[in-house]
Amino acid sequence: MSGPTVLVLAGGLSHERDVSLRSGRRVAEALRSTGVDVSVHDVDADLLPLLDEVRPALVWPLLHGASGEDGSVKDVLEMCGLPYVGADPRASRLAWSKPVTKTLVASAGLHTPRFVTLPQSLFRELGANQVLSTVTSGLGLPLAVKPSRGGSALGVTIVRTADELPRAMVGSFAYGDTALIEEAVDGTEVAVSVVDTGDGPHALPPVEIVTDGSYDYDARYVPGRTEYFTPARLSDEVTAEVCRVAVQVHRTLGLRHLSRTDLILDPAGQAQVLDVNTAPGMTETSLLPQAAVAAGHDLGQLYGAIVEAALAQS
């Protein structure tokens, strides 16, 4: 295809900078393979002058972590009068906060593990030992401790004994001053990507994730650490259910163009929503591209269709 000039934003200053750069390169390569005029730029002091000079037809922010997923870059693009791929600022802010996301999906009738959200200041005010003892009494073990915002499993720890909880909290607070502590559900981990190229959101084949230990940052981005089954080894009925849940999450949060919902199927077969990504990774090991290929999509054609859909909505 030929047509609009697309500017891909990749990099930034978050902990996920490297993943963003790799995502940006992969999407740009795929779009170029179909004839799209695309360039890649970092998020730095040169960006606003560049936007003013070049005035691209569309911006595709492939930014992971703060600023990229919290809606702030989208706010700036809207003030510049530039259309872009992805959720608008309001929806981005909702999905960026894990506690808000979990509250909204639960209100929509979906399932998510029980959780509490604790700021670091509360530990100083009430005493760390007393707070942690109350947490383990209230939620039981095992637990998943994670920053209330952020992605790529940075700062995430699975806690199986009470003695492991203090170190897990320190690990989480290294990435933000508020931690989300939730029941750690044992089961089959599945990621379902959703795309909308103008005819409404639809789910791509679920990806089943099998890893030795926690599905942490290293397991996500170092080839060989994790085994993926695409499509997931699920019955037709369960596959349809996890796809339904992912599309409902996408709609509930008011997302656009693409998203990825991470779920776990508990021993009873119930799909529990763990997290939602408004800017899914697009690297060579990322889940949305794997699912798209499994569905028979050419990545360049699919990304081009997302570009056309975003332009049509501008």
From TrEMBL:
Its EC number is 6.3.2.4. InterPro entries: ATP-grasp (IPR011761), ATP_grasp_subdomain_1 (IPR013815), D_ala_D_ala (IPR005905), Dala_Dala_lig_C (IPR011095), PreATP-grasp_dom_sf (IPR016185). Cell wall formation. Gene3D superfamilies: 3.40.50.20, ATP-grasp fold, A domain, ATP-grasp fold, B domain. PROSITE patterns: ATP_GRASP. Residues 102-308 form the ATP-grasp domain. This is D-alanine--D-alanine ligase. Pfam families: Dala_Dala_lig_C. Belongs to the D-alanine--D-alanine ligase family.
